[in-house]
Amino acid sequence: MKGRRSASGYTLVELVTVVAVIGVLSAVAYPSYTGYVQRSNRAAAKSALEQVAQFMERQFTIKNAYPDASALSASGFAVVPVGATGGEIKYDVTISAVTPTSFTITATPASSKIDPTCNILSMDNIGNRTSSSGVAAECWGR
């Protein structure tokens, strides 16, 4: 009498269960990951705005006026877009509305997918921090 051979492999129910578990984990993990990436990009943009503001304040301390575009280029200062050193540009940082006593710095996302919550971040010479979405407290962490 021949012995029964045991079947090897996976049943259809086991495969469907594994696929369902992977689907549930993906549905939870992907939104969390994209939220983390958006917050990370936002932090880099805020850091860039702070660095430009510090440069502008140093120039104001030295010359008792904020530098205009020609003075910025003469000083060798260049505003580097956020993400330019790591590959894809995430935010474009610009200095606008420069007068001898005021300035506004703006970080504009390269696409709407980068930060749909806050979108455009801006900062002025007296420390006002705003976002185009109107939720400055959430965007600036205050």
CATH architecture: 2-Layer Sandwich
Query: Based on helices, strands and strand pairing, what is the structural class?
Result: alpha+beta
Question: How would you sum up the major sheet?
Answer: 4 strands, antiparallel
* CA gyration radius, whole angstroms: 25 Å
Number of domains in the coordinates? 1
Q: Mean of residue pLDDT? A: 84
CATH level 1 name: Alpha Beta
Order of helices and strands: HHEEEEH
- Return the CATH topology: Glycoprotein, Type 4 Pilin
Commentary on this structure:
The protein is an alpha+beta fold. The chain has a single domain (12-140), classed as Glycoprotein, Type 4 Pilin (2-Layer Sandwich). Helices cover 45% and strands 17% of the residues. It contains 3 helices and 4 strands, in the order ααββββα. The chain has helices at 12-63, 69-75, 136-140, and strands at residues 91-99, 102-109, 121-124, 129-131. It has a 4-stranded antiparallel sheet. A hairpin with a 2-residue loop joins strand 1 (91-99) and strand 2. The mean pLDDT is 84.
